[in-house]
């Protein structure tokens, strides 16, 4: 198992593959798997400052496509979630989301709740393309904000990673 994990990490090494690795990490981190793509984006930009905008765009597209997958998973899971549809907190959350509509997907950038929010938007059968557009805006704003903040706080790179 350790050998397989080491080979996967070597395959996804940022200096070797760059933007393609960032895309994969961003896509996976937008699914319901607990993973963050900001460190990968920051690391790639610190190694290649001239890739700032391409890297932000690749991360945004990968993360948005992952959010779109979440939407489709939620859309297909409607029957499974129905069995919990009568709890008070569930009904309040659904009411709030229905009131906001696709604009709720602007919050797809939030840790912990953002990715499930995309799935719930699909489960509620909110319009796919407006939800995607709001996801894209929210995720793009997150990457610009987080990367800018990391570059400001750690101008020489993250401690222990060189730079």
TrEMBL record:
Pfam families: VTT_dom. Coiled coil: none annotated. Residues 52-146 form the VTT domain. The chain crosses the membrane at residues 12-32, 52-73. Keywords: Membrane, Transmembrane, Transmembrane helix. It comes from the Bacteria. The keyword Lipoprotein does not apply. The keyword Transmembrane helix applies. InterPro entries: DedA_domain, VTT_dom. This is DedA family protein. It comes from Ramlibacter pinisoli.
């Amino acid at each position: 198992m350790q050998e397989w994990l080491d080979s996967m990490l070597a395959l996804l090494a940022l200096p070797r593959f760059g933007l393609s690795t960032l895309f994969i990490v961003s896509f996976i981190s937008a699914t319901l798997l607990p993973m963050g793509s900001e460190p990968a984006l920051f690391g790639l930009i610190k190694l290649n400052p001239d890739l700032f905008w391409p890297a932000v765009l690749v991360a945004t597209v990968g993360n948005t496509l992952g959010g779109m997958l979440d939407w489709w998973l939620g859309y297909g899971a409607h029957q499974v979630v129905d069995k919990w549809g009568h709890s008070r907190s569930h009904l309040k959350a659904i009411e709030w989301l229905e009131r906001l509509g696709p604009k709720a997907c602007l919050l797809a950038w939030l840790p912990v709740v953002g990715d499930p929010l995309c799935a719930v938007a699909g489960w509620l059968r909110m319009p796919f393309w407006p939800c995607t557009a709001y996801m894209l805006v929210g995720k793009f704003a997150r990457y610009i904000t987080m990367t800018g903040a990391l570059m400001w706080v750690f101008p020489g790179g993250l401690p222990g990673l060189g730079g």
